[in-house]
Amino acid sequence: CFLTGAAKLVVVIAIFLLTFYVISQVFEIKMDANLGHIFGNLPEAFSKILVYFLLKATKPPRYKCGISKACPEKHFAFKMSSGAANVVGPKICVEDNVLMSGVKNNVGRGINMALVNGKTGELLDTKFFDMWGGDVAPLIEFLKTIQDGTIVLMATYDDGATKLNEEARKLIAELGSTSIANLGFRDNWVFCGGKGIKTKSPFEQHIKNNKDTNKYEGWPEVVEMEGCIPQKQD
C-alpha cells in the first residue's frame, strides 16, 4: 500500500542521511558554503519529513460518516444519533452526507425522518413530526406515500411517542421496526429500515425513559448507531 511504500522510502532516506552525516563528522569532510548550508540542514529537514510520514502512517483511516470500519461494496455507510434531551437535535448521515442535524436546521421535536433512494443512496426527503404538541395524521399520511425500495431512517428528539397511535406504529413496524410498539414518552430511539422489507431490521436502538437511570434528568442518554445498508438490487 501507499503508506508501506512511503515508510520504506523514509527508512532508506534515513539510512542515507545518517550515514552521510556520520562520515562527514568522522572524516571532517570540507564542503563549500552553499553545500554546507544545504547538507547542514538535512537532519532538521529530514526530521520534519520523518514526523510527517510517521503521523500519516499511524493516523487511523477515516471512513464515511465517521463509522468504525469501511462498508463492503454495494452497501451504504450510515451513522445516526437521537436528540440529547430537548437541547441538541438528532443527526443522520448517509454516505458521508449529513442529511439532518441541528446545524442544518432541519430537525425538530418528535420523530425525525430521512428518506433515501435504496439504489443510488440519493436523499429523497427529510421531515420531522411533532409527537408532543402536533398531530399524528401528517405522519401517517407521509408514511403511506413512501415508495418500495426506499431506505427510511428515523430518530427521536425530546418526545417522539405521545401522539403515536396504533395505525402509525403499525406503519412504522412494516418498515422493519420492532421497538416502535413499545416506544414511550421521552424514550430515545433510532431506526433504519425500508419500505418493502421482508424481515425485521437489524438497525435499531431504543432506550427507555427512566428517572432512576436517565442521564439528563427527564431524558435518557443519547443513542447512536452505525452500519452498512445493503444497496437495493434490481
Automatic annotation (TrEMBL):
GO molecular function term, any single one: carbohydrate binding
Major location category of this protein: secreted
UniProt-annotated location(s): Secreted
One cellular-component annotation, GO: extracellular region
CDD domains: ILEI_FAM3C
PROSITE patterns linked: GG_LECTIN (PS52031)
Transmembrane segments: 6-23
Entry annotated with the keyword Signal: yes
InterPro entries: FAM3, ILEI/PANDER_dom, ILEI_FAM3C
Domain ILEI/PANDER: 109-196
Keyword line: Disulfide bond, Lectin, Membrane, Secreted, Signal, Transmembrane, Transmembrane helix
Family: Belongs to the FAM3 family.
Protein name: FAM3C protein
Taxonomic source organism: Vidua chalybeata
